[in-house]
Write a structure and sequence with these properties.
The complex is a heterotrimer of chains A (146), B (390) and C (501). Chain B has 390 residues and is of the alpha/beta class. Chain B is 24% helix and 27% strand. Chain C is of the alpha/beta class and 501 residues long. The chains are: A alpha+beta (146), B alpha/beta (390), C alpha/beta (501).
Chain lengths: 146, 390, 501
Amino acid sequence: MKKIYVNEQWCLGCRLCEYYCAFAGTGERDMARALAGMKIHPRMRIEEKDGISFAVSCRHCKDALCVKSCITGALTVTDGMVAIDQDRCVGCCTCVLVCPFGAVASTAHGVMQKCELCVQSSAGTPACVRGCPNGAIVFEERGAAR
Amino acid sequence: MKYVIIGNSAAGIGAVQGIRQVDPHGDITIVTHEPHHTYSRPLISYLLQGKTTRDSMKYRPDDFYAAHNCALLHGEVTQVSAGQVTLADGSTLAYDKLLVGTGASPVVPPIEGLDSVPNRFTFTTLDDALALEAALDPSKRVLIIGAGLVGLKCAEGILKRVEQVTVADLAPQILPAILDAESAAQVQAHLESHGVAFALGQPAQPSNEYDIVVLAVGQRPNTALLQGIAQIEQGIVVNDKSETTAANIYAAGDCTQTIDIASGQSKVMALLPNAFLQGECAGINMAGGNASFGKAIPMNAVGFFGLHIVTAGNYTGEVYTAPGKKLFHSGNRLNGFMLIGDVDKAGIYTSLIREQTPLDSIDFALICETPGLMAFTREHRQKTLGGEPT
Amino acid sequence: MGINWIYPEHEVVRNRDRCINCRVCERQCANEVHEYLSEHDKMVCDDAKCVNCHRCVSLCPTRALKIIPSGNTYRPNSNWTNRTINELYRQADTGGVLLSSMGCPQRYPVYFEKILLNASQVTNPSIDPLREPMESKVSLGARPRDIQRDENGRMINNLPPQISLSMPVMFSAMSYGSISYNAHESLARAAQELGILYNTGEGGLHEDFYEYGANTIVQVASGRFGVHSAYLNSGAAIEIKMGQGAKPGIGGHLPGTKIVGDISRTRMIPEGSDAISPAPHHDIYSIEDLRQLVYSLKTVTGHKKPVIVKIAAVHNVTAIASGIARSGADIIAIDGFRGGSGATPTRIRDNVGIPIELALASVDQRLRDEGIRDNVSIIVGGSIRSSADVVKAVALGADCVYIGTSALMALGCHLCRSCHAGKCNWGIATQEPQLTRRLNPDIGHRRLVNLMNAWRHEIKEMMGGMGINSIESLKGNRSMLRGIGLNEKELEILGIRHAGE
């Protein structure tokens, strides 16, 4: 299955991925209209320090602790992708407590969110991958080769 | 292969999922005395608060039993013997492998004056919650005995639906199992600012000032079924394969005690995530697979009126303190942490405890300040962000 | 501001309705033009620092930015232009030589724009390159003067060493040091994929790139940096750099601050020491001296590799080329006055040398007249901007062209002409790790390959239109060219007739 992979060698820390991610969830056609004056809550987030930067989003673990730990059953694995049903989530943060990557985080309205590979909002390639100017985030098949 | 699972909560469901990973065809029967589809027990306070519904609090979808080809039997197991269990109606069920996931029951200690309150409840099951809900009324004054997680979540759940909620505890602080006094005071102040009253550090005094009392002083593992059959201390003793000391009998969840790798001690860790993981491990092993649940640690994620609290591990060793944060470490290992308020990326700390990561292999000073993958080596990140995580 | 204040040339215009304060512009500008004021929750910019490289414009996710001429002007004067006045003020302020980068931007004639191509109508039918074979391959090197046969009458292969190219375009010399490791990797990988050559420039060859040797021209310049036997033998050809179109008659200077790490090792000079390329080669004061170096290099490489001599297009270029064609060199490369540079004195760049079109036409004619055209192949560079320029250059007599600026533009260069500042926001003309990583060679090499593939398609279309099916038949075929708006002398030098003739 295709997944998002990050190569920090090429990450510029520009944070375009964060904005394209936040935009992808809005359903608007124009980013300026969608995000003007807003604090964004992207599902992909950059860590940055002393010239090193890289994007972190859900790794869609095979043995996902968040799914197994979720107290509501809101987190599930479907075809290798970890998905969240925000209608079931009560925002207890157990997933935050167990995710070893820090890839699940709170939305503005209390429930949790995480990368779902843009399956809802775009065709084919996730928004962060399309928005990355330097190929630091790619969407490809790697599992089979290993 | 015949599997019998006693209990329809996280451990039992975990066992079903575990069995089906290995054995797609064996007969699975889940026996539960509760007349409900599997539901999440911690959500009962959210139900009263209106943050979830009977339907959304189902722990697994409606088609779970059908999809996993297992039978759900509503009844009460009264006796376990080798190869079969006996139900209250006298019928028996044969098993090749048995999972005991009986959970825990609230402790009801003798408390003076309790009889003076007309409505008395415990707060563990959905039926408890529904019974309590039926008694709620904006004119009611409620006394909750026990300032632990159950008592406080109950307080949050019903606060808006009654006139007054008072939480009493013999201990001088709230949440003594997961917070130190200082952090507890911070959370208590937050709860008080939302209108919860406290009577701490003294015996609870139920009286006719109250219309409702909720007993939340603790719970005790339900071990009776294995009495004399398997080793029992505080809970049913299981190893890292979720095996009890009795042949073909496994146990998981709140009724068990297991090794906490953060402290090395065997203890009851009544937590939903652990129950599921332990149940899944049991299921895989019951079906002939080989799984080990060796990374159990005490941990909790809870929130009250928007204030998140996450904790894990044990509070021993040196302490790193920052506003809303305490990290406990010794011997090059992180032992435990508490975070109040900003809990973002807490799982990175949890993983340090769970994986027993040597702290000198990462930038510990940095990770104390900000949990993140930045504190790890580039090679580690290459593996996690550029490779296939397990 | 003081009396030395010069109003910024460009103004960064931010559309407040579209800006979402994402701060991408701030993070991407090495010149620190943009700044986020947290207390006011707004972005501000300092136009004075802007070099108009368009990094922010390109990456702005909401199209909130554009850069326009600031419009500030002195009292209009056709003689004393704003630019002339500002340069004068700068020099009055600093007492220094003005530095620039890339090619001459001044309004001299561009002859390629005054030459039109022919196409077939009715007779000599045109060729559809998608349906019929069309040869874009070229081979560079000296041609044998006569056919030799052995005692059995079989032809003896007396072909001197050649470079074989899939199309008549190569990437011109740009040193590792003047451009980044990632830029070099992009060029090397693209050359390999395309079946053409790139050129090390005078900075030596990084050990990582020896694997691209079959697609590499190794350069020997007056500083002789990084030159050793393994280096000379690693490439497909050797180029002796006598001159450069952007700075004819002068040498080069890479400051010691850039001689660090791999660059120091590759150039074989100590870290921190200035890399000074003298204006002349101090062992070459005549064609005879040049011949010695040509043969030294051939000896080192077992006479297996063609030797290129690169010169800047200057006034007596024909006589120099004639000498080179007799020096034993296999190929002459001529760099016109519009050619680029990572740093050059402004006055030299803008005032020295001649247009490549005129130099090419006259050199080709001179070598033909002297009967020595087959001694050498001719490569021309100095602002080849499109496939049409390539076709016109070949028709004027070139065997192949060099592209430098065009290649850099494929890698992201926006011609801000600030290479000499070392803070290239596109990760090309810089050695700062934070900036060089902006050029991912996976993307860079792909874009170069795209550009060349596009040009090859266009070249074939234009040739097909003329009824020509190989580069070889186009070469020197000046009957396919007509001048427009040129005077008699210009037409004479170019060797073409005027449109309508």
